[in-house]
Each structure stands twice: as structure tokens, then as C-alpha cells.
Amino acid sequence: MTLTETTSKTSLETSSASQDWWKSAVVYQVYPRSFADTNGDGIGDIRGIIRKLDHLDRLGVDVIWLSPVYASPHADAGYDISNYQAIDPVFGTIEDLDELVADLHSRGMKLVMDLVVNHTSDEHPWFVESRSSLDNPKRDWYWWRDARPGRGAGTPGAEPTNWESFFSGPTWTLDERTGQYYLHLFDPKQPDLNWENPAVRDAVYSMMRWWLDRGIDGFRMDVINLISKDTALPDGVPDSITGRGDGFVHYAHGPRLHEYLQEMRREVFDGRDALLTVGEMPGVSTDEALMTTDPERGELNMVFQFEHVGLDHGTSKFDPQPLEPGVLADSLTKWQDALGETGWNSLYLSNHDQPRTVSRFGNDRELWRESATALATMLHLQRGTPFIYQGEEIGMTNGFFPELSDFRDVESLNFYAQSLGLGCTADQLLTGMRRNGRDNARTPVQWDATSAAGFSTGEPWIAVNPNHTWLNASAQYADPSSVFNYYRQLISLRHDRDVIAVGDFARVDVGDPAVFAFQRTLGADRLLVAVNLSDEARTVRFPDPWEHAELILANYPDQTGPCLRPWEARVAATRKN
Ligand code: ISL
Ligand code: CA
């Protein structure tokens, strides 16, 4: 035991000093609007993050990914940026941000900022200029097109392509002044930048250098796989209900994506040390992810893939379907295997766009603690860099939204408005939104049992979950069996044992698809993980080496034989001689 500890510390020091420090790091996502409010306006702010750094320190995370705090009209909660180099007053000042960076650094943590450059806000000066006339020098910074030939601008179906936007409705909006349409894959207030134009790329790179010079440690890149599009802009195959087309194959993973990412690396990242880059890539294939994360190609450290967070989608994300046993494990295993040798995985179950992990994949009622810790074990002991979404470390559950007026998110509200017109009932739609809507992730972090959960002294911008009276951080700190303290153990295990960060991954068949079991190997070190992802006890066949392994972590207090109780997780270690 002593020997193992000494060995792992030495190798950790080596790995954190190296360029690959992020392989043993754990990232924590802060969604600032819902984290902690210090001035009573009901909206979280940067000073709130500074005030809560002890929580993050205690948890033991290495990196904070901060969702956008830039100047924004907030049509999409800050993912619509009107000034990349200014902090929105609702979140604070640039001095607050500098102080946050300094405080994090003094505690040995890093800050990764959100980079949203597939689109800007329509209130960004670039777009304001671009839309001002047909011959404005910035006209070509965005995607402007005439109406479809033979159709009058503004008439139904005259949009340049038939694409459906991520937030419902067409991806094109007519600008009356110049009579042309502009492209927006998301909200009309989020026009897409034209990356074909080198001046756009230069402006983005110079903004990125400005932030890195200020001391931040990397970027999480919003929908970065959408920056290169097929310039012919072909129609997508029409949907039988909306009549609009799915343009994904034409606007995602376009022909110049890898060229742009490599150019960005040369222009922005070369010569700078110890950064972290992660690209959000909805719909990415394992092949594309491998190309993007292969260090030889010099693109990104890792990507967020979406396969496992789409498994429960029916006709849309708002039509969630139950998952068959083994489906989640199969998908995650596929990604472990595909990116194992050459690339690198990010590991996540939740973020500000997804429902809460324990409500979606676990049992947030009778087996809340067991399933929250089981899912965390399954994720954190895979090969890759784990991401914790704020509140996940205390097992926060989906929000409580009795009425339509309780929802805030543009995606949900637009979907509701559009689908009601297409014959769905209000009840059906609200049920789907309660299950999979993005607002689930955006209710305030539950710090304590007081009326606004310690989040704010004012009226929170979105309702606090009523379960904060028992589900809150302060109730968990002192309880050794809490979800919070379990996460602490998982994080410190990763820091202490290189087999977790970089060991090989191999799925183990224990004879029951509801049990996700795998083995990690690094030299002589072996880690054995078995997690029952179901509400029922399961009898499993543990392979040989497991019989003699030392149990190093479990989410039930006592251990009994080959039966895994509901959502039981066991982690054991052996060392070959
Ligand atoms: O949540 C989604 C809709 O089902 C996703 O498709 C999401 O829109 C997609 O992952 C892109 O997300 C990112 O870009 C969006 C922003 O709204 C999300 O919050 C952000 O994470 C546009 O900037
Ligand atoms: Ca505030």
C-alpha cells in the first residue's frame, strides 16, 4: 500500500509538469447565472464564484470551465455575445474576472473560458455593421443570401435553404433593409459568422490571444464543429411534420473544419503552455473525434461527443424514451475503445444543456444517493477527463416546473409554441420539457436549506428546487456518506492513481447487461470497476482476479458476495507481481 502511494505520487508530479497535465485533471463547470448571487438581483455573478471557491477547493477539482460571462442581450442566456472582450454588468466587471483568475491560480486551479464563435449576437458591432448595407466591408463576415430563385423575399418557403434551426423555425431571417436573409443555426438573435472570410478568423484569433494574455488557461469551444459549412448550402431532407429540412450534414463538419482548427492552434496556442482545449461537437462521429484529438494533428485536446446524451431521445429530445439495460454502457464503451489508443475522451453526463444526471439515468427518488454515486463511479473511473456540472457533486435533481410560465429557456419555449401549432397537446409538451428541457440544469445551486437555498437574498431568476430543504451542500459536507464526499473520493483517486487517468480500458462481461463492469490497466496496476445501473439486485460472475483484489471504494457501507444491490458500485485494485 505504502509502496503504491509513493509510486503514484512520483508519476503524478511528472504528468502534471508535462503538456498532458489535463489527463489527470477533473473539470468543474460553472454556469454563472445559477451559481451564486452576491448583490441580490437574483442572478449569479462572478463575485459569487469567488465567494464559493472553498467549495471547489474542498471538492478537489483542478479546472473551472466558466460558461459565458461576456456582454450579451441574453437571448440564449449569454451564448449570444455582443462584446467578446467585456464582462456583462449582470455578472460583474473585468476586475472581478481578473480577481477570479488570480484566486483560482493561487489555489492551484485553472480557468477555462467559453468560446462562442460559430455565431455572435445580432447586437455585436460586427453584425450591426454587416447588416447596414450590401457593400459594407463587414457584409461578408456573416452568411447573407437572396431569397430562393422565383420566390419573393419574405414569402413562405423563400428562405435560401429549408433548414430547421436548433431552436425551432427556419435558420434564415429576412433583413428588410437590404432585402437579404442571414443564417442563424440557433436563434434569430445569433447570426452565424462566416469563417470562410479570413478577416473573421483573424479577429477571433486575436480576441483569443487577448484572453490568454490576460491569464486564462484555455477554452471550451461552443459548437465548434459547425464553423465550416458546405458553401453551396444544399437543402436537407424535409421532415414530414414541420416540412423543414435537417441540414446537419451540410453545416456540420464542413470541408475546412480541420484546417481551421489547425490554423487556430498555430495562430493562438503554439508557444503557450499548460492550456486545455475542448470542443463541443454535437453529432460528432468517433472517426471525426479521433482526428480532432489525435495529438499528432495538433487540433484540440478533447471534444464533447453527444451519443450518450441522445440515447433517450424519441422523435425529438422532448419525447424521451426509457433506456434498455446496457445501452448506456455500450455507447460509452464504444467511445472508450474508439479513442483509446490515439485520441482522448472527455467524460460527462450533464451540463447546462442536459437534464440532471441522477434524474435522467438514475433513480432520483428511493435510490437517489445510491444512483448518484453509482453513475459518478461509472463515469469518473473511465479513461478521459471528467467534467462535473455544478450541483452534480451534491446529486441535484431535475427542477420543478408546474406551469409553462416556470420555464425560461428559449429552446423549450420555442419548441412549445411551434409544436402546439402542429397538433401536440400542452400536457404532452410540458411532460417532455420537464423531463429533458435545459432549465432542469439551470435551477440555482442548492447551498443550504434557507428559502432561496443560499443562492440569493433576492428573487432567483428561475425557481429554486423545493427539495433544497434536504438536498443541499451544507448538509453534505460533514456527512461521510454524502454524494459530495463520494465525489471527493473519486477525484482524489484519479489524482493518486495514474491507472485511472491513463490506464487502458477493457469492458468486462459479468453476465448481466445491467451491470457495467470494466478493468483498467497500467503496467502492473489494475483497477476493477463494477456498477449496477438498475433498481434491482443483480447476481454477477466476477472474473478471477477480482476475488483477491482490495476494495478501495464502494457506495454501500458493507460488502456481501457476488450480488450487487440496486445501484451498487464497487472499485477494487490489484497489483501484478
Ligand atoms: O441542447 C441542445 C439542444 O437540444 C443542443 O443541441 C445544443 O443546442 C447544442 O449542444 C449546442 O449547445 C451550445 O450552443 C448553443 C447554446 O444554446 C448552448 O447552451 C451551448 O452549450 C448555442 O450557442
Ligand atoms: Ca447578481
Describe the biggest sheet? Answer: 8 strands, parallel
Total helix count? 19
Helix and strand content put the structural class at alpha/beta
Radius of gyration: 24 Å
User: Quick check: average pLDDT?
Assistant: 95
Bound molecules: 6-O-alpha-D-glucopyranosyl-D-fructose, calcium ion
How would you describe the shape? globular
* DSSP E strands, number: 22
Can you tell me about this structure?
The protein is of the alpha/beta class. The protein has 19 helices and 22 strands. Strands 13-12-9-5-2-1-15-14 form an 8-stranded parallel sheet. Strands 16-17-18-22-20 form a 5-stranded antiparallel sheet. Strand 12, helix 9 and strand 13 form a beta-alpha-beta unit. Helix 6 packs parallel to helix 8 and helix 12 runs parallel beside helix 17. The radius of gyration is 24 Å and the shape is globular. It binds 6-O-alpha-D-glucopyranosyl-D-fructose and calcium ion. The site of 6-O-alpha-D-glucopyranosyl-D-fructose (ISL) has 14 residues, from loops.
Provide a brief overview of the structure.
This protein is an alpha/beta fold. It has 19 helices and 22 strands.
Task: Give keywords.
binds calcium ion; about 575 residues; globular; single chain
List the helices and strands and how they pair.
Blueprint: H1 2-17, E1 27-30, H2 46-51, H3 53-59, E2 63-66, E3 70-71, E4 83-87, H4 94-106, E5 110-115, H5 125-130, E6 144-145, E7 172-175, E8 180-183, H6 198-213, E9 218-221, E10 237-238, E11 245-246, H7 248-251, H8 257-269, E12 276-280, H9 286-293, E13 302-304, H10 327-339, E14 346-347, H11 357-360, H12 368-380, E15 385-389, H13 410-421, H14 426-436, H15 439-442, H16 473-477, H17 483-496, H18 498-502, E16 504-508, E17 515-522, E18 525-532, E19 538-539, H19 544-547, E20 550-554, E21 563-564, E22 569-575
Parallel strand pairs: 1-2, 1-15, 2-5, 5-9, 9-12, 12-13, 14-15
Antiparallel strand pairs: 3-4, 6-8, 7-8, 10-11, 16-17, 17-18, 18-22, 19-21, 20-22
Helix pairs in contact: 6-8, 12-17, 13-14
The chain binds 6-O-alpha-D-glucopyranosyl-D-fructose and calcium ion (CA).
6-O-alpha-D-glucopyranosyl-D-fructose binds at residues 76, 79, 116, 166, 186, 222-223, 280, 282, 317, 352-353, 411, 438.
